[in-house]
Amino acid sequence: MLCKYYVYIVTNIRKTTLYIGVTNNIQRRTSQHYFDSQHWKKSFAGKYNCFYLIYYEGFERAHEAIVREKEIKKWRREKKDQLITKFNPNWEFLNNEIF
């Protein structure tokens, strides 16, 4: 499967805040989150320094990714934590894996 769109989760250094998003370029998007955390504190990810990638899921179609993002956003924190742990058991920062 060729993934053109991604649902992703980034967090802060302490892993206390989660940001869930959709993108067609996960590398560029995580870089934008980093830039926002350094320069533009008005965005959610920038305000809470969420730029550490801990989860991603690929999709062929934008609509599928958007539906999945909305589904995950509705979940309680505990369920989101379980999703992340299943994908990334040690909650390692994956930013270097996507470049």
Mean pLDDT, all residues: 93
What count of structural domains? 1
CATH architecture term:
3-Layer(aba) Sandwich
**Helix proportion of residues, in percent?**
40-55%
Summarize this structure briefly:
It holds the Pfam family GIY-YIG. The protein is built from 4 helices and 3 strands, in the order ββααβαα.
Report on the structure:
The protein has 99 residues and is an alpha+beta fold. The chain has a single domain (5-98), classed as GIY-YIG endonuclease, CATH 3.40.1440. It contains four helices and three strands. The chain has helices at residues 26-39, 44-47, 62-74, 77-87; strands spanning 5-11, 18-23, 52-59. The chain has a three-stranded antiparallel β-sheet, sandwiched between helices. It is globular.
State the main characteristics.
99 residues, GIY-YIG endonuclease, three-stranded antiparallel β-sheet, 4 helices, globular, GIY-YIG_endonuc, UPF0213_domain
Secondary-structure blueprint of this entry?
Layout: E1 5-11, E2 18-23, H1 26-39, H2 44-47, E3 52-59, H3 62-74, H4 77-87
Antiparallel strand pairs: 1-2, 1-3
